[in-house]
Amino acid sequence: MIRRLGILFAALFWASSAPAVEEKVIAGLSQTHVAITTDFSGSEIFIYGAIKRDAPVPKTWPLDVIVAVTGPVQPVIVRKKSRQFGIWVNDVGVQVDAAPSFYAVATTGPFRDVISHTDDLIHKVGLDQIVRLIGSPQDLQYPEEYREAAIRLRKDAGLYVELPGTVKVTDQTLFETRVRLPANLVEGDYRARIFLLREKSVIDVFESSIEVRKVGLERWIYTMAQEQSALYGLLSILVALSAGWMASTFFRLVFR
Amino acid sequence: MNIYLPIAEISVNAFLLLGLGGGVGLLSGLFGVGGGFLMTPLLILIGIPPAVAVATEANQIVASSFSGVLAHWRRRTVDFKMGLVLLAGGLCGSAVGVQIFSLLRAIGQVELLVSLCYVVFLGIVGALMFIESVNALRRTKTGRKAPRRHHHWSHGLPFKMRFRASNLYISAIPPFLVGALVGVLAAIMGVGGGFIMVPAMIYLLGMATTVVVGTSLFQIMFVTGATTLMHAIMNQTVDAILAVLLLVGGVVGAQIGVRLGPKLKAEQLRVLLALLVLLVCAKLGWDLVRTPSELFTIGGGGGH
Question: What residues contact residue A221 under an 8 Å CB cut-off, 6+ apart?
């Protein structure tokens, strides 16, 4: 009886802000290495995990989970066209300093119902926090426009995806989701972050990384093009010449 | 069947690329054009980054033009002397063109320059070719011979050379300049330049039409080879897998084109080419003027 009361108190205490029940998130990924082979057509990563706690499940607010997968971050230049002398011309453009090559965010429910604005700012979870202008140019009237365009263009290309309601939570303990990596993937170290939330605030974060690498022929070609570019160029020409010669000879012998 | 391209870093359908290569190769063999003026915009359209499209297309043109040159060589329709003069100009021109290209890439105006070049040159060349070939068609119908000009405008220039295969005795300066202009355009537009060189050889230099195609292919092969090497070394943008797929289709198409060529009438062939050139020109011109559905474009910031 006393024990039960204690739990009740604990739950009440937790509900009144400070978490009494320590909850930790532990997660696993179906693969931590993605090999880009010649026939690579995208890859699906299954992310699953459990919530570890040292006390029974608090019965207050149901917990939420956000899974975010981020690709290598590179600056990009976004340009806007305007009509000059009757034709559409690019302007100088704005550098969007932080723009990952890929970003997927899967949540248990609608994004804004799951995480508060403050926590989104702190942990940089939403697309608006992920794609940022650092030193925004002074002479432009609406630099925001460029940042939003970067997000929109990458969303259209399937590189930025928001997946609300795709994380399934079972008994407030187990969760799972799937994130599809598209075929037009850039190699690098991808970061998977799993956020555990209660009452729209983050209570624990788990991080893991996914190595995306070209392998085999892809690796060989890429490395050679970067490191022995002169030889690579000569080989390319040689391949082209021999293909031209083979076709010519073949046709001459076959269709005389 | 999708194939991941290691340099372009995207996955593309292999049969689409083979088909594109084949279709463009056919035109290459038929008209003596590299086909780059069609292929480069098409590659960009299917999502290949423009820098990779331009460099890889140059590599593909090496294959299709070599295949074409061999076929013409056997039929003795290559003027090697003229080809070498054009080539000397072409190499100078492409070195200049690559510089202009990198400069404009830095300020984000490459796309515009390329489109403008296409519209202007395709427009002029297409219109001239169309008028000329329609007139020629009319003459053959009425049975009148084309008036032969004995005094070409370039006869007053120094460095006269005899080009036996082309049936010409002219100064080396005009062909050198034609080669140089084509070289500049080749580097900027990612094309071989045949669509400008072929009409220039016929109308500007007055070469015998039988050797025009073979000689043009001869020059294109070397200029695109040099361009491929420059792009590979400076920008690492030649995609070997993309190139192989394109050139397998390309060389086969070129061979068919070369065999198909003599079976068609030269004037009709030129009307066809003129129409094709004007069509591409109209499409690109329309894209420049029309209000785009998306005003913004995204490009790499640092490397790549």
Answer: B6, B7, B240, B241
